[in-house]
Amino acid sequence: MWLDLLSRTYYYRGQQRYGATKGGAYVCRNEAKGAGMRAAPGTQ
Fold first, then answer.
1. How much is the pLDDT for 42?
2. What whole-number distance in Å separates Cα of residue 35 and Cα of residue 17?
3. Which pTM value belongs to this model?
4. Is the four-CA dihedral 24, 35, 9, 42 of positive or negative sign?
5. Which one, 19, 25, 28, 44, has least CB within 10 Å?
6. pLDDT at 5
7. What are the extents of the domains in the chain?
8. What is the C-alpha radius of gyration for the chain, rounded to an integer number of angstroms?
9. Cα separation of 32 and 29, whole Å?
10. How far apart are alpha carbons 37 and 35 in whole angstroms?
11. 8-42, pLDDT tens digit by residue?
12. Strand (E) positions, the chain?
């Protein structure tokens, strides 16, 4: 999963912004959720 640190939003592989934002990082879902990040719009 790709985490955009500026927007505090994470993206899954196959989504348009996955790996494409500046200031992002690859993380696991548990890390992102535990840090209070939110899923990208349209993510189920």
1. 81
2. 20
3. 0.80
4. positive
5. 44
6. 92
7. 2-36
8. 9
9. 5
10. 6
11. 999 999 998 999 988 899 999 899 999 999 999 88
12. 2-4, 9-11, 24-26, 38-39
Residue type, 37: M
* CA neighbor of 7 nearest in space, from 28, 25, 30: 25
**What distance in Å separates the CA atoms of residue 37 and residue 30, rounded to the nearest whole number?**
10
- The residues, ordered by sequence, that sit 6+ positions from 26 with a Cβ below 8 Å of its Cβ are 1, 2, 3, 19
Confidence class of residue 44 from pLDDT cuts 50, 70 and 90?
low
Q: Which of 36, 42, 24, 22 is nearest to 1 (CA)?
A: 24
Separation CA 44–CA 27 (nearest Å): 18
Which residue type is seen at 43? Answer: T
